Amino acid sequence: MSTFKREEILLLFDVDGTLTPARKVIEPEFEEFLYTKVKPKATLGVVGGSDYPKIIEQLNGKRLLKEFDYVFPENGLIHIEKGVEISRQSIQTHLGEDVLKRFINFCLRYIADLDIPIKRGTFIDFRAGMINICPIGRQCTYDERLEFHEYDTKNFVRQKFVEALKKEFANVDLTFSIGGQISIDAFPRGWDKTYCLNHVTKGTDFKEIHFFGDKTDKGGNDHEIFEDSRTIGHKVLNPKDTQRQLQDLFDL
Fold it and tell me: Where does Mg(2+) bind (predicted)?
């Protein structure tokens, strides 16, 4: 059980698989638990690989901005505090147009030659702090998402894609992680979820920073922040497990 005051303990949560089922919205019962039971005991923050509109959609929009002290879309490349945007980084400026164009062209050619059961639309999602690559296409239905994830688990589609990217762009400042069920995130080294810690480790009173996430194994997009010496990592299985671990942590 934690003994720190609310302003001394920060809870950082992943979104998909931690606060919500993959690509679904937060359950009302869990939301109420967070805000009525957990928030009085700890500062709340969310860090997701998705862009700002998607996080807002999944976590109940305006209420999220009211209840969460920190919101970190795109691994914290966008920094929102108490509902106000403080700063943002740009992968476009960091890498330059020539590298970006070569990278996107390579991904599109690779996907075009990829033999998988189905493909839909939106294979490249260009964000402020990262590029999201989706072999099946982000316009797939929820059922198609689940089918691809099962196929990928057996056939290592994304893992092989990452290996090809690492080989082709070995001399470019990019790293890759397999996130969620259908996609790959590409971003400059150090722009993983640990980036958000830059915003909460200086000028704050936090004595403990806890991180809750489901993709904590090596190669998953929660791995680096889960392993970081500045955080206490909690591997979760799903939102119900997140709630159970919070109940144990605060004796709720």
Answer: 14, 16, 214, 226, 228, 231
Cα 189–chain centre separation: 15
pTM here is 0.82
pLDDT digits (tens, 9 = 90+) for 128-170: 888 999 999 999 999 999 999 999 999 999 999 999 999 999 9
Strand partners, 179: 183
Distance CA 42, CA 52 (A): 23
Q: Hey, do 6-77+192-250 and 92-187 end up sharing a CATH topology, with the first three levels equal? A: no
Is residue 68 a known part of a binding site? Answer: no
Residue 241 among known ligand-binding residues = no
Q: Which residues are catalytic?
A: 14, 16
Taking alpha carbons only, the member of 54, 73, 22 closest to residue 195 is: 73
User: Domain 92-187, CATH 3.30.1240.20 — does that match?
Assistant: yes
How far is it, in rounded angstroms, from Cα 235 to Cα 80? 25
Q: How many degrees, rounded to 5, is the angle at CA 16 between CA 181 and CA 231? A: 115
Q: Is 16 annotated as a binding residue?
A: yes
